[in-house]
Amino acid sequence: MKRTQFISLWFLPLILIGGLFVPWLGYLVLGMMMFFLPLSFFKARWWCWNLCPRGAFLDIVLARFSRAEPVPKLLTSAWFRWTALVMMMSFLVWRLVSAQFQPLAVAVIFVVMCWVTTLIAIVLGLIYKQRCWCMFCPMGFFQENLGRVGQRSNKKTCATPCNH
């Protein structure tokens, strides 16, 4: 386990449990998403493996209970990962529009999304490897693709051969 995971681990119960009583904590989810997306252009999924509170929970807690079975190829296929990304983002946009972007409603939406995705991660992590969810996590997949774009643009800007 990384030291950063022990620190970030506490954000998950703060959002999940604290968000039930103080829904404004949902903005922590949005803040993390928005803050680390630009980083992924340079570091791809660095956030996922080092700072993601759910990933820390899966590595530190759920790993003790996981059957550690191989992840089905379906869950790692490109079309499934793209489908999960499009469906989750579409659902998120639909919920935000339905809530008319009211600040408290937006906060609740992010708490609920955190709950739903964490429950999916726990169920899959118990059945398969603890980080099964991470194989198709919409944010992680999006970050991975931003990292690829960043790598391509960095290679194009180098006038001489350089290490990336």
Helix content: over 70%
Task: Please indicate the count of domains.
Answer: 1
The average pLDDT is: 91
What integer value in Å does the Rg equal?
17 Å
N-to-C order of helices and strands: HHHHHHHHHH
The termini sit apart by 26 Å
Number of helices: 10
How many distinct beta strands? 0
General shape: globular
Poorly predicted tracts of residues? 158-164
Structural class: mainly alpha
Q: How would a textbook summarize the main sheet? A: none
Oligomer category: single chain
Give your account of this protein's structure.
The protein has 164 residues and is mainly alpha-helical. It is built from 10 helices and no strands. It has helices at residues 3-8, 11-16, 18-21, 26-43, 46-50, 53-60, 73-76, 78-98, 103-127, 138-157. The longest helix is centred in the C-terminal third of the chain and has 25 residues, at 103-127. The protein is globular, with a radius of gyration of 17 Å. The model is unreliable at 158-164 (pLDDT under 50).
Write the layout of secondary structure elements.
Blueprint: H1 3-8, H2 11-16, H3 18-21, H4 26-43, H5 46-50, H6 53-60, H7 73-76, H8 78-98, H9 103-127, H10 138-157
Helix pairs in contact: 4-9, 4-10, 8-10
Can you tag this structure with a few keywords?
164 residues, mainly alpha, 0% strand, disordered C terminus
Summed up:
This protein is mainly alpha-helical and 164 residues long. The protein has helices at residues 3-8, 11-16, 18-21, 26-43, 46-50, 53-60, 73-76, 78-98, 103-127, 138-157.
